[in-house]
Each structure stands twice: as C-alpha cells, then as structure tokens.
Amino acid sequence: MDSTKIALSVFTAFGALALLFLLLRALRHISTFLHPSTLPKYLNKSKGSYALVTGSTDGIGTGFARELCKHRFNLILHGRNPAKLSRTKAELSREFPDLKFLPFTFDASKPTDSLENAVREQLGADIPITVLVNNVGGLGGQTHAQFMALKDHLNDEVDRIINVNLRFMTQLSRVLLPVLERNSPALIMNVSSVSHIGMPYLAIYAATKAYIQSFTNGLNMEMRAEGNNVDVMSVEIASVQTPGNPLGHGFFVPTPDKIASSSLARVGCGSVSVVPYWRHWLQKMTIDVIPESLVKRLVVYNVKLLKTEWKRREEEQRSTDDLRNEITGEERGESRKEA
Description:
The protein is an alpha/beta fold. Helix content is 56%, strand content 12%. Pfam families: adh_short.
C-alpha cells in the first residue's frame, strides 16, 4: 500500500511539473504579444533611414513594404521584374508621397556571383539602410514544382528553390552587414515558416526554412559576440492569403498586411524566433503538445489535401487557357476571311 501511495505521489508530482512547464511556456509566448515593438529605434529621421524588403512586389513582401512606410521608413523595393517593381513603387508613392522609394532588381533564384556588384551599382555604398527584411521565398517562379515529389525534380529546379529561399538571403545579409553596422542600431528580420518541421512534397522548401532558423540564431549570437548593435530575428508564419496558396481564406489564413504588421509588432519582444500572428501561434502550440507521430499523420493528410486542390486549380486554369486560345484562334480566322 505504501509503495502504491509513493508511486501515485511521484506520478502526481511529475504531472504537476509537466503542467507547470506548459503553463510557463504558454505565458512566455503570450508575453511576446504584450511587449511593445521597438521598431522605432531603427528609424533615424535626420538621416532618412531606409528599409530593404526582398520580394516586395507580391504578397507578404508588399505587406511589409506598406507597413514599414506607415512607420515612416524610406523603402528599397526588391524584385526580379522591373515592370512589377515600377508598379509597386508607383502605388506606394501615391499612398506615401513624402517617402522615398528605390528599386533593386535581382533574380533571387539565380546564382549570386554578381550580387555585390548589383548592390554597389544600384544602391551605392552610403545609403542609410537600418532594416533588412529577408522575405523572398517560394519556388523561384516554378509553379509547376508546387507539391512535387523530390525524385521528380530536375537539377535546375532544386537549385532555384535553394537559391531563392536560402542562398540569396545569406549572401545579401553578408553584403549588407557592414552597411547595417555602420548605420546601427539596425535590424535583420528573416521570414521563416512553421513548415521547418518538414513537409512531404515540399521537402526542399521546408528544409530551407529550418536553415533560416539556425542561421538566424547563429547570426544573432555572432552579433552579440562581436558587440555589434544589429538585432537579428526570425518570424515563423503559417498559411497566408497569397496567390500561391490553395487554401485561400479562413480563420487561420490572414492577409499579407496582417502578417507584416504582426511581425513588425513583435520586434524587440525578447525572442530571437517568434510566431508573430496569434492564430498561427495557437496552431504551433497545438503541434508542440500533441505526439510527434500524430503530427506527422496530420501533416501528411493536410498536404495531400493541398496537393489535390492545387492540381484541381491547375487543371481549371489549363482548361480556361485552352478555351481562350481556341476563341482567339477562331476570331483570327474570321478576321482573315473578312479581309
């Protein structure tokens, strides 16, 4: 009987400690949402501080650009398409006529051998950049590579995914670090994803997000070790309303502007890596407490659903394009007859 009571007491104590651990962990995460943002400290109004946002012509990147404008930062807009950069610049200039906007054109999915020259030629050496948002990511413009098994990828496809999500971010951070140090206090924000735990049919993409987490932690410690006043953090996001997202809308699927504002609101929260949007945080907490085997089954199930929906949309788009081409061909034929 005594041994039974002792065993029950031990189990009760372990259970209480486990609950206390989960409670303290939840409170620590909740505190990140209550901490006021320290983003204003990177804005030097006398110098006219600039923020550089990579991949700023679409989705989350445009959201970051707009939100940083609201905080009175001048903007360097990065993209690979000059026409889209011009449109984004024109839209933001109309919305924020008193701010300055500079385009920076570079294809993040390509090799980075010429990146230093591109930065020097397009931006110069003296521009007062104090914020770098490494946002660009995805499949490098390869929509056909969405939800594709690793064995079906070509060599060039793999390289493009690694370049756009990993290599470009690393090299741009390296090139701009002296500029950020010179204009400090400064901030590097790396956009990561909760998919860093691993995803089927997105294995390469998810692995690059795990790299971002490790890179951010290492660089943050390096800045502390060197005594540099450059803060480095990452934001982990989940599903967002972007053109490449088959989910579209939903309770857990915010707009790009909402993700951007939530991310900037978490600056200075005390965590190097943070899930900035509270509904995504609820998802992440659920993943953290349920058994790993169940997490894997849920991930496989959900990704298969996404893959099916993506294929359905592709087929619909292909049918629409075929019909449009057929109508265009008939119209051209009629025009020739009339001529």
